[in-house]
Amino acid sequence: MKDLEGLYLELCMSGVFRGVLDKPLLSHLSDYFAEGVTRSEKIKAYASFVSEIYKNGGSLTDLVCRLVFEDENVYVRKRAHGGKCDANILFAVERELAVFRRLAALTPKDFARDLGVDYVSPFSSHDVDIAAEYETRIRDIDKHGYGIFSSYPMFRLNSERELVPIVSADRTTIDKFVGYENERSRVINNTLAFVEGRPAANTLLCGDAGTGKSSTVKAVANLFFDRGVRLIELRKDQLSNLPYVMGKVSENPLKFIIFIDDLSFNSNDDNFSMLKAALEGSASAKADNAVIYATSNRRHIVKESFADREGGDVHRNDTMQENLSLSERFGLVVLFQKPNKQLYLDIVHELAERRGIKTPREELDIKAEAFALRRGNRSARCAEQFVESLL
Q: Rounded to an integer, what distance in angstroms lies between the CA atom of residue 264 and that of residue 68?
């Protein structure tokens, strides 16, 4: 019979992986072993413990491993930057990982015996050498990362200026696209250079709406996730936080795409200068392990009115050129134009085939063209919406 309380007390002595103890799973375990707890309260604490396992897929082992791998502690930060750890820290890491291995291997029967009952809510578990897996991830930390970056591909900045994972992030992949192969290959090749440590350009994907610009950026981030690429999405109104974000990731071993979607400015927009500084390599708004990818429906990102052209600026031409040239500060500009009739129909045919639609091609073409006319234009998005409508 396993000594569950003894195991819990060993967990409580964790010094390196202290952050894991603050997670809900371990909080419920703490309630289970709380001093003076009644049997019914213990059963409720176990139910909460199992509920947390269910929320995360149903495997205690997988959840414990994820919590350990995501923990941002003094040891992983030292290793990430090539530093040496004190011998006492190394001993503590070895000891604590062995305790977490025992926690991850617990079974429902262990708790049933401890509670003195025949049945408890089941969960899955198995034995795994957490220490060996942890060391493997440390050796390839430029691919796996640490902290929240170890498990999620995409992040956003919340109102408290914290980088938080996008739990329901777009999982689209490159192979799901039809058409625009040349445009996407330019973005892929630039990202590959970035991953391999070669010069890579800040990139603007511009052109017509519905052509897949944003989806391309997210698909490329997913493509290179296993090679250490993470995406951080910033809204245009968050660009004042760009130096802060760059500072947060500058010492991280991973590579980051700072993604700004649907970018456009008015000529007096304060965020204009912040992005301009980042694109020009200002030290305060730049990190060697980050590139900026932006999308815009406009080739010239700064909106310009006739009043701007006539305006009262003494050096009006200089001001106009500064505004119009922001897009030129991106090292790579990829133009996504709305498809002609043939490309639009090619996209429809491919998507229809993938979804098992058996409509004769001639009939499909007529319906697809009618659908595009009702929408007012042809686009890759329009083709996808048409095929979805057939389903």
A: 41
CA dihedral 262, 267, 271, 276 (to 10 degrees): 90
- Other Cβ atoms less than 10 A from the Cβ of 101: the count is 20
Angle between helices 341-354 and 380-390 (to 10 degrees): 40
Where is 320: in which H helix or E strand?
helix 316-324
Sign of the four-CA dihedral 358, 184, 286, 77? positive
- Residue pLDDT tens, the chain, 391 long: 579 999 999 999 999 999 999 999 999 999 999 999 999 999 999 999 999 999 999 999 999 999 999 999 999 999 888 888 899 999 999 999 999 999 999 999 999 999 999 999 999 999 999 999 999 999 999 998 888 898 899 999 998 889 999 988 788 898 888 888 999 999 999 999 999 999 999 999 998 888 889 999 999 999 999 999 999 999 988 988 988 999 889 888 999 999 999 887 665 666 766 777 777 765 555 788 999 999 988 655 555 444 444 554 544 454 444 445 666 788 899 999 888 888 889 888 988 888 889 888 888 888 989 998 898 888 888 988 998 888 8
Integer Cα distance of 272 and 373 in angstroms: 37
pTM confidence score: 0.78
Amino acid letter, 74: V
In 3D space, the residue among 158, 192, 207 whose CA is nearest the CA of residue 291 turns out to be 192
Strand order from edge to edge, sheet including 255-260: 163-165, 154-157, 229-234, 255-260, 290-296, 203-207, 332-336
